[in-house]
Amino acid sequence: MLAGVALVLLAPGLRGEPIPVRHQQGAAHGFLALRSLQGTRLAIGDVTQVVHGDRVTSRLTFRFRDGSIDDDLTVFSQHGVFRLISDHHVQHGPSFPKPIDVLIETVSGMITSRTDDGRVNREKLVLPADLANGLPPNLLMNISPSVPETKLSFVAPGAKPRLIQVSVKPAGKVGFSVGGSPRKATDYVLHVDIGGVAGMVAPLIGKQPPDYHIWIMTGSTPAFIRAEGALYEGGPVWRIEQISPSFAQ
Q: Domain extents for the chain?
């Protein structure tokens, strides 16, 4: 769910550990809006989860007003810890300058990408146990806001897929309201780590991607509230929020 953290091809850092399951993920169907930071609605999204035993199939699909599609199908297990099984992410249409079609299969370590002209590229990687493509909100709902930093691994798509590491840190509480009732959410900041000399130079040459923010209402029943970040490398920062259905009068 919500896999659209824009990741670039950078050297990986140290790998983290799988996130323990504190809140079992269940069957669900939610509705999302994707907007510019100025409030213009760009797309409507459906997010679904189906559970079979300790295996969960999650799908997030954004349908853009210009006909573009962002579709992410993620399968993971939640037996003690969260482990990614597969993630198939597709982006195409006018909103995406570089369309992608990438399938990650963790058992085989195979990364399969398909291009618009029909070419299929396959790369095999040794994938870490904490691989998190397609999983950020599910994982953040299971991380205590008292934990100062969590490391997650991702596969960054491209002609040569690479493993990178993302640092997740809570940045404090942010107030919001539901029907006038005040609530608070934890703002988690996802930052792509670039180690060594490359990390010092990246901000100077414009290679450091902007941070991605995900707001989670924590507690005994955590919930996704909002996200802000780019959905593709070099893309604009967009906002994702929950929306409610409306009925014709």
A: 28-242
Mean pLDDT of 90-116: 95
Question: Does the CA dihedral 119-123-129-133 come out positive or negative?
Answer: negative
Backbone angles phi, psi at 27, to 5 degrees: -65, 140
Q: Tell me the C-alpha distance between 53 and 95, whole Å.
A: 37
Q: What one-letter code names the amino acid at 146?
A: S
CB–CB of 130/17 below 8 Å? Answer: yes
Candidates 23, 167, 149; CA nearest to 82 is 23
Beta strands per DSSP E along 16-116: 28-36, 41-52, 55-64, 69-79, 81-92, 100-105, 110-114
Range 206-227 average pLDDT: 90
pLDDT at 32 over 60: yes
**Token match 């493993």: residue?**
163
Tokens representing 115 are: 């291009």
Residue 100: is its pLDDT beyond 70? Answer: yes
Does residue 102 have a pLDDT over 50?
yes
Name the nearest CA neighbour of 75 among 112, 46, 109, 105.
Answer: 105
Amino acid at 49: Q
Tell me how far apart the alpha carbons of residues 29 and 15 are, in angstroms, rounded to a whole number: 32
Instruction: Concatenate the DSSP letters of all residues of 115-128 into one string.
Output: -TTS-EEEEE----
Residue with tokens 């909002």: 226
Judged on CB neighbours under 10 Å (0-12, 13-18, 19+), 95 is buried
